[in-house]
């Protein structure tokens, strides 16, 4: 698989990563299956994927425990990207950016992952109660201590920005400028996909100008862009899509032209799939972009990894770029 470089620490990774969240979090728990998830991770590594994206909050904790079972055997094949600083509370998720907490969270992640060093430690959310420089300083100490190789920031604040009327990712861009003064940022992780393109303005150029890697979260539009979901098919109550405005039957039907476009492009490339076209479109947005498609299925992990071989033509990119904005938002 093509290799790409993640940011300041110049760490090499396979161009397509693996998002491990669906194995333990956010999607229907009744479909989670540890053994088949392990097979998916092994298959991705066999196909040249190296970056495994997880977080202590996924499960909570069980996703890192699962990956620990793989890493115990195949540490050299993997690039471990985990996250700290966000906890699942009784009612909602809570950020904790206090230095002492971050130090304890990192030690606990190392134990669960069965490794002595995390390749990329990402701040899952900035804590509004703690200056971000303080949190980042504690994370930088983890690098000095040899527990972590590089630092990343997650930027999933587009919705909050929209609510306050600020320009999208404005808060994150300010945070990035601040933490960059303390210790180099190696990666930014934010939503980016064919149907969520806000990061193309501001966030992606910020990364490119500074040699920072961009990890594209939710690159398959939570599964929508794969064309395998049926409008009105319904979701289990514990599946994040059951409450997602773009996954009502009406919005899924309204957004079918996006899937139809990915299908048309896929057909021009022989046996390619809409999922692979969605991932290849991301790879074409810059050499610093590494999509992290989430899956718990072996066949889909292999299909997604093969997207690294798909090079879209200029016409394909124009056709996808001309798609209208997706309908259905959180506002
Ligand atoms: N930093 C953050 O706060 C944050 C937030 C969200 C996500 N993320 C990261 O981004 C990763 C990706 O996001 P995501 O997993 O939510 O969304 P996604 O990658 O856009 O889509 C995942 C969904 O697509 C399905 N899928 C995957 N490959 C497929 C294929 N080839 N054909 C058909 N269906 C396919 C999966 O099904 P199965 O699960 O059944 O395999 C799952 O339902 C996460 O795993 C996580 O690592 C980070």
TrEMBL record:
Residues crossing the lipid bilayer are: none
Pfam families given in the database record: Aldo_ket_red
One annotated GO molecular function: oxidoreductase activity
Q: Which InterPro entries match?
A: Aldo-Keto_reductase, NAD(P)_OxRdtase_dom_sf, NADP_OxRdtase_dom
Q: Which UniProt keywords apply?
A: Oxidoreductase
Q: Where is the NADP-dependent oxidoreductase domain?
A: 16-320
Q: What is this protein called?
A: Aldo/keto reductase
Name the source organism.
Streptomyces armeniacus
């Amino acid at each position: 698989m093509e290799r790409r470089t993640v940011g300041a620490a110049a760490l090499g990774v396979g161009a397509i990563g693996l998002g491990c969240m669906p194995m333990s979090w956010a999607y229907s728990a009744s479909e989670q299956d540890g053994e088949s998830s392990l097979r998916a991770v092994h298959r991705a590594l066999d196909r040249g994927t190296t970056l495994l994206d997880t977080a202590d909050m996924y499960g909570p904790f069980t996703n890192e425990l699962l990956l620990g079972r793989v890493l115990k055997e195949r540490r050299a094949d993997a690039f471990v990207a985990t996250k700290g600083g966000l906890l699942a509370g009784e009612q909602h998720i809570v950020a904790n950016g206090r230095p002492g907490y971050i130090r304890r969270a990192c030690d606990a992640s190392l134990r669960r992952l069965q490794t002595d060093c995390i390749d990329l430690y990402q701040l899952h959310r900035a804590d509004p109660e703690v200056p971000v420089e303080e949190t980042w300083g504690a994370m930088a100490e983890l690098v000095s201590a040899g527990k972590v190789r590089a630092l990343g920031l997650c930027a999933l604040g587009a919705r909050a920005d929209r609510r306050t009327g600020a320009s999208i990712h404005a808060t994150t861009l300010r945070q990035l400028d601040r933490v960059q003064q303390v210790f180099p940022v190696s990666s930014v992780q934010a939503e980016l996909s064919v149907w969520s393109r806000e990061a193309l303005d501001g966030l992606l150029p910020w990364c490119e100008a500074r040699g920072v890697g961009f990890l594209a979260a939710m690159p398959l539009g939570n599964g929508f862009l794969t064309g395998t979901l049926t409008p009105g098919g319904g979701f289990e109550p514990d599946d994040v899509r059951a409450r997602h405005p773009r996954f009502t039957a009406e919005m899924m039907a309204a957004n079918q032209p996006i899937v139809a476009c990915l299908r048309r492009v896929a057909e021009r490339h022989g046996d390619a799939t809409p999922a692979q076209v969605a991932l290849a479109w991301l790879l074409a947005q810059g050499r610093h972009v590494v999509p992290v498609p989430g899956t718990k299925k072996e066949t889909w992990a292999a299909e997604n990894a093969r997207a690294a071989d798909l090079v879209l033509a200029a016409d394909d990119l124009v056709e996808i770029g001309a798609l209208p904005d997706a309908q259905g938002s959180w506002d």
